[in-house]
Design a protein that fits this description.
This protein is mostly beta strands and 326 residues long. The protein is built from two helices and 19 strands.
Length: 326
C-alpha cells in the first residue's frame, strides 16, 4: 500500500468530466496516512497483509454571501462544500463560524502473495484491496484523482473517484467503497525470452444516500415538455432530469477492468525489446441513459444530448530499451 493524498470531490452543481479541480472542500492534512504491513518471504515466494487509515474529514460549512435585504455582518450557513451538495447553495470558501460535519476516518485492508512456479523463474502473483474512504489504495489515480471519462461520437462513459460524499439526508460524510483485484503470471520461455499475462478489476460503489446526493446535484429542469434536461450552468457537466433521478436512472457505481500481455526479449542484460497489448473496459456509471452535456471551453465536444454507454479501449506498444550505463 502507498500512502495517499485522497480527495473529497469539489465539483459543485454537476459532475465535471475530465477536469482536474482543486481540493477546496476537504479538511487540511492533519496527520499522514497510517500504514502497517506484515510480510513473509520463503523459498516458495512471498505473502503480505496490509492495513491503512486515512483522514476523510470535510471542510467548514459554506458561508452565504451577504445580499440586499440581509443585516450587515449577518453570516448564515448552508451545506458544507464537501463532496457533492445534495441541496443548498453557498460559496466554496467555508467559514469557521459555520462549523463542519463530524470528522471521518477512511480505511483500507489488503492482501496478496507471489508464488514461484517450477525452477525456470516463472511466477504467479495476486493482490486484493478493500477500501472505505481511501480509494487510491484500490486504484492509484492520477494526481488530484480526476475522474475517468471517454467520449465516442455521440456517446460517453464515465465514473468518478472520491473518498467521501456529503449527504444532506444524513448530515455526514458518506464513505466511498472501492474494491481492487490484480493478478499476473510471468513465464520464461528461455533465459532471454519471457511473456506475462495480467489483469485488473476495480469496483467503485456509493451508498444510497451518497448516490442520491450526487444525482440531486446533477439535476436540472426539463426543457418544457421535453424529457431531457436543460444545458447546465456548469461547463463540462452532464445533467439528468428530476424524472430520471426519481426512476433510478442516475447510478454512479461503476467498474473499470483490463487484461493485457507483454513479451520481452533481452539481447543483453542492458538491452531489450518489449511488445505490449492491452484491452480496457470502462463499465460506465448511469449506463444506458440519455443526458445533456454542456461543453467545456477549449474542448471539441459541443453541448448536446449524449447516450451514456460503456467504453472500450485497445492498445499496443513496442519498446526498445538500452541502458547507457550497464
Amino acid at each position: 500500500m502507498t500512502p495517499q493524498s485522497g480527495t473529497l470531490n469539489t465539483n459543485l452543481g454537476n459532475l465535471v468530466l475530465g477536469v482536474n479541480t482543486a481540493d477546496q472542500d476537504k479538511a487540511k492534512t492533519r496527520f499522514p496516512d497510517l500504514v502497517q504491513n506484515w510480510r513473509v518471504d520463503q523459498a516458495w515466494g512471498s505473502a503480505q497483509l496490509m492495513i491503512a487509515a486515512h483522514d476523510v474529514s470535510a471542510g467548514y460549512y459554506a458561508a452565504n454571501p451577504i445580499t440586499a435585504g440581509t443585516l450587515a455582518g449577518l453570516n448564515t450557513c448552508t451545506s458544507p462544500v464537501a463532496g457533492f451538495l445534495g441541496a443548498g447553495v453557498g460559496t466554496v470558501t467555508g467559514s469557521e463560524i459555520c462549523g463542519h460535519p463530524a470528522d471521518k476516518l477512511g480505511w483500507a485492508v489488503g492482501g496478496g502473495s507471489r508464488h514461484n512456479v517450477g525452477t525456470s523463474g516463472d511466477y504467479f502473483q495476486w493482490q486484493v484491496n478493500y477500501t472505505q474512504g481511501a480509494v487510491r489504495y484500490a486504484a492509484f489515480t492520477p494526481a488530484g484523482a480526476f475522474s475517468p471519462v471517454q467520449f465516442n461520437g455521440q456517446n460517453l462513459g464515465y465514473g468518478f473517484f472520491s473518498d467521501g460524499v456529503f449527504s444532506n439526508a444524513t448530515g455526514e460524510v458518506q464513505l466511498t467503497t472501492a474494491i481492487g483485484v490484480n493478478a499476473a503470471y510471468d513465464h520464461l520461455w528461455t533465459p532471454q525470452l519471457r511473456t506475462s499475462i495480467y489483469g485488473a478489476y476495480l469496483r467503485v460503489e456509493y451508498g444510497n444516500n451518497a448516490n442520491l446526493a450526487i444525482c440531486n446535484s446533477q439535476t436540472t429542469p426539463n426543457i418544457g415538455v421535453s424529457p431531457f434536461a436543460t444545458p447546465s450552468a456548469v461547463a463540462g457537466a452532464i445533467a439528468f432530469t428530476p424524472v430520471q433521478v426519481a426512476q433510478g436512472a442516475c447510478n454512479n457505481n461503476f467498474n473499470w477492468w483490463q487484461v493485457g500481455s507483454r513479451t520481452q526479449y533481452n539481447f543483453t542484460p542492458w538491452f531489450y525489446v518489449g511488445f505490449d497489448v492491452i484491452y480496457q473496459k470502462l463499465e460506465s456509471a448511469s449506463n444506458g441513459n440519455t443526458v445533456t452535456y454542456t461543453t467545456l471551453t477549449g474542448t471539441a465536444k459541443p453541448t448536446a444530448l449524449y447516450q451514456i454507454q460503456s467504453q472500450d479501449n485497445y492498445g499496443l506498444r513496442i519498446r526498445v530499451h538500452r541502458d547507457i550505463v550497464p
